Fold this sequence. Notes:
Blueprint lengths: L2 E8 L2 H32 L6 H6 L1 H7 L9 H23 L17 E4 L6 E3 L9 E4 L3 E6 L7 E10 L2 E9 L12 E6 L3 E5 L4 E3 L3 H4 L1 H12 L10 H35 L2 E5 L3 H4 L6 E2 L7 E2 L3 H14 L1 H15 L2 E5 L24 E3 L6 E3 H20 L1
Parallel strand pairs: 8-11, 11-14
Antiparallel strand pairs: 1-5, 1-7, 2-6, 3-4, 4-5, 6-7, 8-9, 9-10, 12-13, 15-16
Helix pairs in contact: 1-4, 6-7, 7-10
Amino acid sequence: MIRAYKFLLRPTARQKAALGEMLRDHCSLYNGALQERRDAYRHVSKTGVRYGDQSAQLREIRAFDPVSQGRWSFSSQQATLRRLDKAFAAFFRRVKNGETPGYPRFKGAGHFDTVTFPRDGDGCRWNSTPHDPQIRVRLQGVGHVRVHQHRAVRGRVKTVSIKREGNRWYVILVCDDLPAEELPPADVIVGIDMGVTHFLTTSDGEHVANPRFLAASAEELAEAQRHLATFPRHTKRRTKAHRAAARKVAKIHAKIRRQRLDHAHKTALTLVHDHDVIAHERLNTAGMTRAPKPKPDPAQPGVFLPNQRAAKAGLNRSILDAGWGVFLAILANKAESAGRTVIAVDPRNTSRTCPSCGHIAKESRVTQAKFQCTACGFTANADHVGALNILNRAGLALCDAA
């Protein structure tokens, strides 16, 4: 089993400057490699340049520019070139499948935030002493950086990544050979229905409140964005006030992201501790949050009919604020580690099916919160009905598997 650990770094002022230089130099390498691929495809050969060709040039690049490129880890620079190679592989795959291609783009200094070291001990070294108050990670060209390790690292450290989020720096350890920590059986199966009014509703009728972190910070975020909008967008050199305004917006977004992750971890942990099997809908969040297509008016060319775009935008914002996809991914990871089972069932008609008689009708969903079967008169909370139907489908899936 593989698990990732993320710890906050405590760099000194000098180390923070060195970390920033490391990101800038890796970003420059990425952009230079991208430019070489573009030029080779346009002017030399349609086959272009491959990762192996660019990796072979690293020694010459490091020797030519020892200040900007030669002082960093060779393997981390190879990882940056692999990152570009994966971007091109994804581009060609989308072209082949007829999707929107999305050609790889140049990275700005503020949009290149991660450097990866493919192997512990090659350009970096993680101090594996458990519960050591002076935990440090050694990085080539930076030194020994203090780490705020809030939990023990289990398994073998495979890769080490350094990531910048706003003004904070993090180290991310990917570990394998991790033993499972199975929990004692709870002999309970539950179905959960994800929602907007409630974050989730269980088949037992319990509602977990939706914290709405984005909505809670909307006023502060809007004020910061209005202040940022007062500065011209396209300038050769940003002022100190402009950079401060951008950091303010990024800080608010980072806080919302941390709050959402914290809530998802705690909710998933409670479910995993109390249930052996957890069933949920197989949700397509990207499709659910897609903007509605415009409706041309057949009687008036160039005129479009109302398509409730504004209302759909509000619903999309609420869905993304709830963070269903992040929560379900965390739930699956925690369940795997604890030896629990997570089942994703077909979401069709879960809110329109009566759990009592099985009748399916759109009219049974009276309101957002009320369900009343048009056949047998069964009445219950609509989210609770959805969770019960999810539980029933999970039970059938378990019977079929047995």
